[in-house]
Amino acid sequence: MNDTSPDELAGIIGTAAEAAPILAATAPRERAAALVAAADALDAAVDRLVPIAMRETGLAEARLRGESKRTSVQLRLFAEVVADGAFLDVRIDDADPDFVLGPRPELRRVLAPVGPVLNFAASNFPFAFSVAGGDTAAALAAGSPVVVKAHEGHPELSRRTGDIVADALTTAGLPVGTLSVIFGREVGVTALRDPRIAAAAFTGSTRGGIALAAIASSRPNPIPFFGELGSVNPVFVTPAAADAGLDALSEAFVASVSGSAGQLCTKSGFLFVPRGADVPVAESAGSIGEHRMLYAGIAEGFRTRREEILGTNGVESLVDGEVREEDDGDVWVRPTFARTDVATLRRERERVLDEAFGPLSIVVDYDDPAELPALVAEFFPGNLTGTIQTAPDEDPAGYAALAAAIAAHSGRVIVDGWPTGVAVTPAMTHGGPFPATVGGGGTSVGTAAVSRFLRPVTYQDAPQAILPPALRDDNPWGVPQKRSPAGESSTWGSLSSARGQGVGA
């Protein structure tokens, strides 16, 4: 796929900028209907798109069909969010001459779309984190046009998906320029610097995300940049769980590490176990067939990290795995498992702790479960997830401190599950402290993702005729409005006082 030319790029961004005020003024239910139309179009095209995705990425048909369904479900979920209207967070404070701090003007606040969003698509989810994926869906739901920088790992799929979704959106009544796709790494950087781009989203490597975030923040007009970067997603096995036997847990661990050749941001990169615990991964790993990696850059990065980890003093191989390159450049892998201990992790942290993006994980022996909360802070300051594996009927009080430590350094705390498999649902958080994410945190999965592409605007003493529909008294969009009536301030604090006396408990 040829890179987008400078003239083409200027025209695409210009069209997106022209579409922005039209899209922002579109009634929520009309925008929701367009998202459903896009989902319908993707579902109808799945038999044409999946073979292209298989050829370009090497991912299995079943995985890709499931991911395509997840993508259309995301669009439908955000349609529900838009139609409901609560995401606009409308607040109306009536004028109050008797306000406790002096006369209060009438104030009306709403969340407005930021404007054109640049979305850097990911390589490892060619549907769900690509052209029509979660960041695109969230930005469209917010009312912002999207320019997608396609990933070079699946260019044909990106073009086809973009054509299908853009056509569905405009046919449903949204303006031309609501969704566009551009190609080329340097083209993406040029787009990020364009003053008409109002925000950007990224899913990919830590190094790439940090570099792009620096560009976004150093522009003459800096913009929000939301990057989901690297994560190693540590898993901690309690002594009681180890005593109960780790056969089933080891099998699930291998599946979590090897699925999609480990090319998942939620792969379990470390498994902490009591020293000497039997972790029988060899048999399960031996039954895993080889899997093609997404593209040459990821394969080379995995090969380098694997060699570095296995060559570290104090790290032993449990399962060697395999990295095999074919004449055409495709790289095929089998899972690798290593083992070390906390002392080695501390001594060799520069070689061992960084993410190995592929089917590799490290079992780490610990001596005292009381030290685990401190190890989270020491080794894993920012991750997407942290997991605790427990024994049946184990007292939660025994791992409450560990859960609190994980919560302080991760976006999702998992008990007796695995981080791979991110539910597309309102309560999901797919993000975490740096370096898991950059640009203010938030989530790239779940309905809260829409907030990244909104900004607050307050109107003071404005006549009804100039107010946005969501703020008007006749409320033509029918969105929830939270109103603070005059005189309310004189009662502030009374509810908390009443509760303190046992009232309303």
UniProtKB/TrEMBL annotation:
It comes from Labedella phragmitis. Pfam families: Aldedh. InterPro entries: Ald_DH/histidinol_DH, Ald_DH_C, Ald_DH_N, Aldehyde_DH_dom, Aldehyde_DH_Superfamily. This is Aldehyde dehydrogenase family protein. One of its GO terms (molecular function) is oxidoreductase activity, acting on the aldehyde or oxo group of donors, NAD or NADP as acceptor. It comes from the Bacteria. Residues 465-505 are annotated as: Disordered. Residues 6-276 form the Aldehyde dehydrogenase domain. Residues 487-499 have a biased composition (Polar residues). Signal peptide: none annotated. Keywords: Oxidoreductase.
